[in-house]
């Protein structure tokens, strides 16, 4: 287990992530990109590019994978991507008679690109620190990356969400080691800009199913460990 934090790698990661965020969100560099999916991917790619850069530059091994500690990739794919896509589209079709599958998939990919950086690199790199210190370092950097510095109540609430998210998604990362899982939890906030009753029900269903299965997974893991130990 690593016992030192590579702060230089963190600085390089964050500089790359912020620089790309600024270029893609605060300048006209993407004005010529008319493909919505590609534009969204480029706007959220900074943390992933930063992470892969420091992995290469500093010889850091990425600990999270798409499959994680599941026996097969199909399990986290079905649970954390296929299930929410079907649920969200089914509710949308029932209420509005429309299907926004493309938008839902785009949000998941956007969340995945962010999580490669925040959980795949940063939160893992800070793991030697106490958990509350880890969270209180990740959340402000995550907030600053958004380049939204207005001192408003909504921004304060957003910062609080990022603190809670850094703690909660960190727990998911520790439990699954799966980028698909952390991207799904991350994307909940992006899916539902307006908290309608339907959206609240979807969020509740997803969280209940996901958390229940994570608890079961953890208990099964402990039982297997105990059986091997004894």
Care to count the β-strands?
0
Strand content: under 5%
Q: What would you call the shape?
A: globular
- Structural class call reads mainly alpha
Helix content: over 70%
**Overall mean confidence score, pLDDT:** 92
SSE ordering: HHHHHHHHH
The whole-angstrom Rg is 18 Å
Distance between the termini: 24 Å
GO molecular function, one term: metallopeptidase activity
Organism: Sphingobacterium corticibacter
Keywords: Hydrolase, Membrane, Metalloprotease, Protease, Transmembrane, Transmembrane helix
Pfam family, one: Rce1-like
In short:
This is CPBP family intramembrane metalloprotease. The chain is mostly helical and 230 residues long. 76% of the residues lie in helices and 0% in strands.
What report would you give on this structure?
This is CPBP family intramembrane metalloprotease. InterPro entries: Rce1/LyrA-like_dom. One of its GO terms (molecular function) is endopeptidase activity. Pfam families: Rce1-like (PF02517). α3 runs parallel beside α5 (101-125). The protein is mainly alpha-helical. It has one domain (63-229). The protein contains nine helices and no strands. 76% of the residues lie in helices and 0% in strands. It is globular.
């Amino acid at each position: 287990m690593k016992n030192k934090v590579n702060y230089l790698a963190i600085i390089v990661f964050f500089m790359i992530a912020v620089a790309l965020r600024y270029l893609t969100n605060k300048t006209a560099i993407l004005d010529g990109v008319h493909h919505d999916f590609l534009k969204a991917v480029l706007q959220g790619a900074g943390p992933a590019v930063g992470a892969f850069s420091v992995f290469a530059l500093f010889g850091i091994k990425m600990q999270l994978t798409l499959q994680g500690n599941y026996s097969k990739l199909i399990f986290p794919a079905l649970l954390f991507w296929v299930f929410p896509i079907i649920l969200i589209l089914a509710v949308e079709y029932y209420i509005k008679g429309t299907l926004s599958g493309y938008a839902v998939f785009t949000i998941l990919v956007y969340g995945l690109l962010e999580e490669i950086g925040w959980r795949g690199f940063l939160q893992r790199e800070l793991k030697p620190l106490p958990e509350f210190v880890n969270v209180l370092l990740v959340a402000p950097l995550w907030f600053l990356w958004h380049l939204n510095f207005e001192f408003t109540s909504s921004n304060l609430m957003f910062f609080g969400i990022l603190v809670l998210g850094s703690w909660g998604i960190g727990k998911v990362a520790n439990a699954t080691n799966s980028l698909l899982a952390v991207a799904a939890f991350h994307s909940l906030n992006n899916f539902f800009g307006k908290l309608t009753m339907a959206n609240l029900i979807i969020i509740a269903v997803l969280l209940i199913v996901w958390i229940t299965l994570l608890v079961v997974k953890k208990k099964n893991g402990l039982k297997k460990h105990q059986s091997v130990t004894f």
